[in-house]
Recover the amino acids of this structure.
């Protein structure tokens, strides 16, 4: 029975409604199933942003990316971290241009 439990739990995802009924077993056989109980698992934070691409000019960088797995709750914004020092908050968009950069400077 333990293997069945692990297999079932790997099937459950975030923000999923589960409906379960139980049945007792003994040496004489199986009893009737219980009434159905249900619950909804909560959403969780999104996955990592994927397919990030950058193209640069002398003083700007155009970034594009694909939306990550949302895990049951829609994306509402993104944070861009520039050189580990400056965070830029942007709306739910899939591209952004960082302007006014210093030419011939390395940014992470």
């Amino acid at each position: 029975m333990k293997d069945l439990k692990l297999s079932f739990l790997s099937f459950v995802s975030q923000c999923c409604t589960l409906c379960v009924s139980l049945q007792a077993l003994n040496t004489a056989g199986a009893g009737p199933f219980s009434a159905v109980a249900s619950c909804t698992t909560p959403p969780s934070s999104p996955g990592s942003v994927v397919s990030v691409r950058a193209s640069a000019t002398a003083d700007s960088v155009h970034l594009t990316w694909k939306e990550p797995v949302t895990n049951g709750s829609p994306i509402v914004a993104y944070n861009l971290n520039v050189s580990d020092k400056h965070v830029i908050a942007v709306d739910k968009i899939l591209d952004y241009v960082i302007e006014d950069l210093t030419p011939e400077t390395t940014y992470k």
